[in-house]
Amino acid sequence: MSAPQLAPIIAAQGLTVRHRGAERPILSDVGFAIRPGEIVTVVGPNGSGKSTLVRAVLGHVEMEAGEVTRRPGLRIGYVPQRVHIDDRIPMTVRRFLSLPHRVSDIEAAAVLARTGVDGLQQRQITRLSGGQFQRVLLARALLGDPQLLVLDEPTQGLDQPGIVDFYRLIEEIRQETGAAVLMVSHDLLVVMRASDQVICLNGHVCCHGTPQAVSAAPEYQALFGADSAETLALYRHHHDHRHDEAAHDPHHDHKHEYGHHHHA
Questions:
Q1: Dihedral (Cα; 196, 200, 206, 207), 10-degree rounding
Q2: Domain limits at 59?
Q3: pLDDT by residue (tens digit) across 157-180?
Q4: pTM of this prediction?
Q5: Helix, strand or coil for residue 86?
Q6: What is the domain count for the chain?
Q7: For residue 36, is the peptide bond before it cis, meaning its omega torsion is within 30 degrees of 0?
């Protein structure tokens, strides 16, 4: 008998969103649930409504129909897709972490250390590399000790090693804090190893489930083509050859699998 599933910390039912004056909704009848500690990744082509879904989950967009239910008092940390900072205005990393709510030097140092960018407190935010900036954004999202981390295309502009390192960091944070993660991503190969659940979106939920199930779904293969078969084969290969000490761990984070294969 399988163990009972934990109650969702956030769930959507019948979620429909239409931009004002648009003939067709950008999201139609979307439903999913996120449980404690799960990494749930949303994939889909450009214009499929991925960022709109994130904004609906956060309560930032008006819904035409459906509902999003959150566990009462749910703490959410958010890493947006784009953050525009005027490079004419001096702003250190330390000051950035205290917007909009002041945090102590100890708190700031702790989250920067956790995301691997300790020591950057006095660096100008506009002088950071892409990878450093993403880690500072993640640090800021961790300040409230979130139970759910929401990341919208968090690896934009990073090179392949940077992408791999960032997902490894997310998995470590999930293991240490127990936070669930909702992530929008286009890094298909890495996502298939880093996720517990994948939602394939194209205005509606085309398919969703484990990475293996989604990779094998005709709807997913129609959207992502031949790469999907390779993704599935790689994923199964690594799952079937796990290290012995990881065999008992349902949240084994597959660290040894990263970096073996890259997009052509």
A1: -20
A2: 1-74+179-244
A3: 788 888 889 999 999 999 999 999
A4: 0.82
A5: coil
A6: 1
A7: no
Which residues partner with 33 through β-bridges?
11
Structure tokens at 228: 């999907």
Q: In the structure encoding, which two tokens stand for residue 224, read together?
A: 């992502």
Q: Which residues pair with 149 in a beta bridge?
A: 77, 181
The dihedral formed by the CA atoms of 9, 58, 162 and 241, expressed in degrees to the nearest 10: 30
Q: Are 143 and 109 in contact (CB under 8 A)?
A: no
3-class secondary structure, 32: strand
Tell me the pairing of strands 205-209 and 27-34: unpaired
Amino acid at 60: H
**Dihedral-angle region of residue 36 (phi above 0 means left; psi in -120 to 50 means alpha; beta otherwise):** beta
Low-confidence ranges of the chain (pLDDT < 50): 1-3, 235-237, 239-264
Domain holding 233: CATH number?
3.40.50.300
CA distance 116 to 139: 9
